[in-house]
Amino acid sequence: MGFFLETLFGGLMVGMLYSLIAIGFVLIYKASGVFNFAQGAMVLFAALAMARFAEWFPLWFGFESQILANILAFVAAMGVMVIVAWLIERLALSKLVNQEGITLLMATLGIAYFLDGVGQTIFGNDIYKIDVGMPKEPLMMLQGTFQGGLLLSQEDLVAALVAAGLVVVLAIFFQKTATGRALRAVADDHQAAQSIGIPLKRIWVIVWSVAGFSALVAGIIWGSKLGVQFSLSLVALKALPVVILGGLTSIPGAIIGGLLIGVGEKLSEIYLGPMLGGGIEIWFAYVLALVFLLVRPQGLFGEKIIDRV
Amino acid sequence: MFYRENGQFKSSYRADQQIFPIAQDRIAILVLLLVAFIVVPLGVSDYWMRAILTPFLILSLAALGLNILVGYCGQISLGTGAFMAVGAYAAYNFQVRIDGMPLIASLLLGGLCATFIGVLFGIPSLRIKGLYLAVATLAAQFFTDWAFLRIQWFTNNSSSGSVSVAGLNVFGVPIESPVQKYLFCLVFVVVFALLAKNLVRSAIGREWMAMRDMDVAAAVIGIRPVYAKLTAFAVSSFIVGVAGALWGFIHLGAWEPAAFSIDRSFQLLFMVIIGGLGSIMGSFFGAAFIVLLPLFLNQLPGWLGFSISTALASHLETMIFGALIVFFLIVEPHGLARLWSTGKEKLRLWPFPH
Fold this sequence. Notes:
heterodimer; A: mainly alpha; two-stranded antiparallel sheet; 13 helices; 3% strand; B: mainly alpha; two-stranded antiparallel ribbon
């Protein structure tokens, strides 16, 4: 029982991190109808920027404090992500307005490659550390209830809390601020929003910046767990089935989808894996999403697209 | 001046409907084939034959297959590598498990297995489209990556996980030297290109294109979406599967699942985009471009008189690929093939501008 719960919680934590990346997808899809394949590349890029700035700033400005370096690096990395967002809007998306979804998808694929290349050219391609002082020791819980107790990673716990906090912040931003309302208006209908004077271009830059912000948070958490390296952009490929499962337009969907996939992945690896030869984590999420698509194409919370023939 | 069609009158439907209606095109293709079959094997070094021309031919074939699905039928696929892998591993299994299996037969049977898997993963396309389908095809990619790595039966229980083929021959003629490999692939590519060209001109090809342009309207005028989409998946994965088998058997000789990773899928998609969606010719342009660009980028710093590290060169390569894709999507969504046909239009009018 203890082992099962451990696996379950492990899955939930990983799932929370998948959701964090998935939220970036959903934000952009909601506000511009672009299925952003570059989200993974953005996570890698943001994490690389963060890791390297935290390393460089103390050298450049001659101070010692790790905390100050982290704060400055975070601000600088966020600045870089805003610039990236602006450039993407300026150089690619504004020229592809009114194209089909497939064209936009392929454009984001190109952006993903470009960001991967640029990021590694500027920031280097080794494995870098991000150290934001997350607690590393595991936590023993419920020793009285089960034999052997429940072993939880504090790092995962903190990560999950941060992710949950981010979701709350995003929800408030979307619901309470004027910009948030404008974003939701654009999501509902581009043309109507434009005709009442909402500047579409600025909104897109904001959305991509917010997506960059969530990429940065995801990148820091994943990066301090696994180290910042190229494989980070592959972790983001896991976020695709998450959004499919949750529905492309729903932030709660992204979170629940992420949790489901995280848990499903871990449990299946432990309980089904030995029968199938192991390593089924690679495809489990995708096959789950695929099967789900056949039953309910719009995902758990997605909007149903009515398409009569 | 020379590229004029006036005076070439067609007096029968047959003449009107041939693949290359203009005499100059026919001559150009004939010359191209003669060069490819006779001049190239005589005049090109073994290195070029082995390292550039053979991969170019095989990747063109795969791009051709993918183009049928993405360019002609509008079903985006990110799982091309998976279907190549299925073709390669299936052909390998036919080759090693059945004694005296002819090479060509096992390649084609490999293609057939890829067809089966392609249709299987194409079934979701009946309910989902566009973006969702892209994710569904990724499922194929990850699943096959895993299957060929973990399921021992597919690799004939090889301990290292990689498989190899040796002693290839067709009708007693060995396929060993670079020239023989090149010619073998060339024959395949020419035959398949001709078949594909005719398929997309035929009724089924027009159904695919109607499906791509507007599926609802196509269904209204009586095109069965199920049939159109699944045939596109079948034909496409057959060609891709054969290309995969050729890649494993002829080009690599020994391979492991990484040879057909997701990067290969993306690479092929780029070929199709840069070459031209919905164009047979474009598949060849795209493949040539993507095969030659890294070579060019590697040589360029040397020509300019400075050197860069290999890591930097590979990052620059990814960067340039990415930028080019966005560039092509914005400026010329129909790719190099459109530039080619614009060039031909201009030549028709030359030397008078109108």
